[in-house]
Specification:
By secondary structure, the protein is α/β, with parallel strands linked by helices. The protein contains twelve helices and 13 strands.
Length: 318
């Protein structure tokens, strides 16, 4: 294969999600109570599946890398990714860990809570990254996540990012859970091309609530690429150099079914836009449109649309 025949390599967590809806999350579930719900849906989840499939829908060539269990769920993950046209050569079965899995409880308004087993991704370490360096060398950009759910990589995060960049591959990071400690992230930030955590994750890391102050904090730790903060229904604040762009949430192209994966979809759209040479604002709007499509389907990928359809949504308000 020629160098850089992969537009984006997504490294990190993948697994299965069992979607349970609707569930009234304001009432405790317990004491043997029977909760009537719609038929259960089985979907794939985690950043490898969510962002990887979104990137593929938006027209990029995509490869996946990560650890799954040597089990039925792991085979389902590989098959789902392959069916979407994603190269799964970097998905390795782990001998003892189970595939990551979640029960996604979705309330009538589309908000969700998770019962999650991290499983095999928590075994991701520097040795795994080194094994995948030939694959990184084929990719223009790597999206690595979720930082915070791969504890064995945490202390080596800067070294891992440096090794990936040394293979000639740019790096974007995505966090999850509480985002992990700032001390582990800080050493990697000068080497990262794109980092846009959620406000909750960023606030835990920095101790700050103001999005501009948070971005300034990351800049103070050496971040030079695109930095931003996802603000939920208030959109996303993005920064590149001296430029700040507030990206609003866009109207959804259908009823909201499930907000699972919206952040991963935004990041995929942002990266796809930059890959296409778009300005920061245009790429951000593509990200917002990808997220708006995402929430119209169950799970993190069912609502995604083609680049042409998504771009029409991104430009409809212009």
């Amino acid at each position: 294969m020629a160098p850089h025949d992969i537009d984006c390599l997504v490294l990190g967590t993948s697994g299965v999600d069992v979607v349970v809806r609707p569930v009234d999350l304001t009432r405790p579930i317990g004491a043997g109570r029977l909760v009537h719900v719609a038929p259960l849906d089985l979907t794939t989840g985690g950043i490898v599946c969510n962002s990887g499939i979104a990137l593929r829908k938006l027209g990029l060539s995509v490869a996946a890398a990560g650890l799954v269990g040597d089990d039925l769920w792991g085979r389902i993950v590989r098959e789902r990714l392959a069916d979407e046209g994603i190269d799964v050569v970097g998905i390795e079965p782990h001998a003892t860990e189970a595939t990551s899995s979640s029960a996604v409880l979705v309330d009538p308004g589309g908000e969700r809570s998770f019962a999650h087993h991290v499983g095999a991704p928590r075994a991701t370490d520097m040795a795994f990254v080194r094994r995948q360096l030939p694959l990184f060398a084929r990719a223009r950009t790597a999206l690595v996540g979720y930082v915070g759910l791969m504890p064995r990589l945490g202390g080596d995060l800067a070294a891992a990012v440096a090794a990936i960049r040394g293979a000639g591959c740019g790096v974007a990071l995505e966090t999850s859970d509480d985002g992990g400690p700032l001390a582990e992230l800080a050493a990697a930030l000068p080497l990262v091309d794109c980092f846009v955590p959620s406000l909750a994750e960023a606030a835990q890391q920095t101790g700050m609530e103001d999005p501009r102050a948070i971005i300034d904090c990351y800049r103070g730790h050496g971040a030079e690429g695109i930095v931003g903060v996802k603000l939920g229904t208030r959109g996303v604040l993005l920064s590149q150099g001296e430029v700040f762009e507030h990206i609003p949430c866009l109207p959804t192209p259908g009823p909201i079914a499930d907000t699972t994966g919206a952040g991963d979809a935004f990041l995929a759209g942002l990266l796809a836009g930059r890959h296409r040479g778009m300005t920061l604002r245009a790429a951000g709007l593509l990200g917002a449109a990808t997220a708006a499509c995402c929430v119209t389907g169950l799970g993190g990928t069912a609502g995604l649309r083609s680049f042409a359809e998504t771009w029409r949504l991104a430009t409809a308000e212009a």
